[in-house]
Q: What sequence folds into this?
């Protein structure tokens, strides 16, 4: 299977540069994957397409201000934290990183320093000088939210500043709890307290899992053949009581609907023989067409970049040709795409 089969053209004006003023006013495309029917709606009407007893599974990971500016020997470096490994050690991406020397120290503001240890392909390994609590406190003071490059470019094309103060809140779900993601689980951005209250009133169960978004979620597929690509691992966890409730719902025949591809990856990674196991581990699960889903019955998701592992995942859940038709429909109807854009429900 060729990755070029998952390419499409998106008019640049359909890249969302800001979210809706009210989160639940984003458009919602509803796809019935069995009969291929498409409905156009809004997220505030999500309950209309669900039934009492359905379970929505959210990712409660919290995005950190992962974009840092470091200085060393008169040069400035843009460092993107990607994934914490052990203690104060992080995998990072670095602009103009080829200029760095092993053991070179970068200063990020007055308190935070990082020593460059080694490079593994595009990944730069740094040891930082602060323990985790102090580290997070400091990057919350000096860092920028890791707004995706395509949004920054679109803002530049509109003559707008790359970053705004509102991004600190906009690029975060309202149920974000556990720090560690370097990109938002964007399907969750459409939910506000009013929508959650309506879902609860209508008998929709809410559950939380955690996956800290890293390269495994947002890196592009770089191989010609889909099957040859190897995805990076990401940390996830699912608690025992959560697993127990999910297994009970599944046993009762209630639908498990993952909010976002990250929640899909948690559920499918933690399932063995049709049963969710409590887990705290790394996953490099790579879902593309022909994958057989074990636990997930529906997905709430945004519209994804061409040739991305996320587009492959939704094309595995619904037929690839059907997803192409859906994307063409969304473009024709001028849906907004990507992180701050509109979304869809696939059931």
A:
């Amino acid at each position: 299977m060729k990755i070029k089969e998952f390419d499409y053209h998106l008019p640049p004006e359909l890249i969302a540069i800001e979210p809706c003023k009210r989160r639940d006013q984003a458009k919602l495309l509803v796809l019935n994957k069995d009969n291929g029917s498409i409905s156009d709606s809004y997220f505030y009407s999500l309950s209309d397409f669900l039934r009492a007893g359905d379970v929505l599974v959210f990712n409660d990971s919290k995005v950190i201000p992962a974009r840092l500016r470091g200085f060393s020997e008169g040069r400035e470096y843009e460092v993107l934290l990607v994934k914490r490994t052990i203690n104060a050690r992080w995998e990072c991406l670095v602009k103009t990183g080829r200029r760095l020397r092993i053991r070179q120290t970068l200063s990020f503001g007055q308190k935070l320093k990082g020593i460059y240890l080694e490079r593994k392909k595009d990944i730069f390994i740094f040891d930082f000088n602060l323990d985790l609590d102090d580290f997070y406190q400091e990057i919350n003071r000096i860092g920028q939210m890791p707004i995706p490059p395509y949004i920054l470019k679109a803002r530049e094309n509109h003559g707008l500043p790359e970053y705004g103060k509102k991004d600190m809140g906009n690029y975060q779900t309202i149920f974000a709890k556990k720090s560690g993601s370097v990109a938002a689980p964007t399907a969750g951005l459409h939910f506000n307290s009013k929508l959650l209250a309506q879902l609860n009133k209508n008998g929709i169960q809410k559950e939380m899992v955690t996956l800290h978004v890293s390269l495994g979620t947002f890196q592009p597929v770089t191989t010609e053949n889909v099957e040859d690509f190897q995805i990076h691992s990401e940390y996830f966890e699912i608690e025992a009581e959560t697993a127990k409730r999910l297994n009970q719902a599944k046993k009762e025949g209630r639908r498990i609907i993952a909010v976002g591809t990250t929640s899909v990856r948690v559920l499918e990674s933690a399932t063995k023989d049709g049963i969710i196991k409590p887990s705290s581990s790394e996953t490099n699960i790579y879902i593309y067409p022909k994958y057989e889903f074990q636990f997930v019955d529906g997905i709430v998701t945004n519209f994804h970049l061409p040739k991305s592992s996320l587009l492959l995942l939704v094309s595995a859940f619904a037929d690839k040709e059907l997803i192409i038709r859906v994307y063409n429909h969304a473009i024709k109807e001028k849906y907004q795409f990507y992180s701050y854009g509109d979304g869809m429900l696939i059931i």
In short: The chain has a mean pLDDT of 96. DSSP finds nine helices and 19 strands in the chain. The first strand starts at residue 27 and ends at 31.
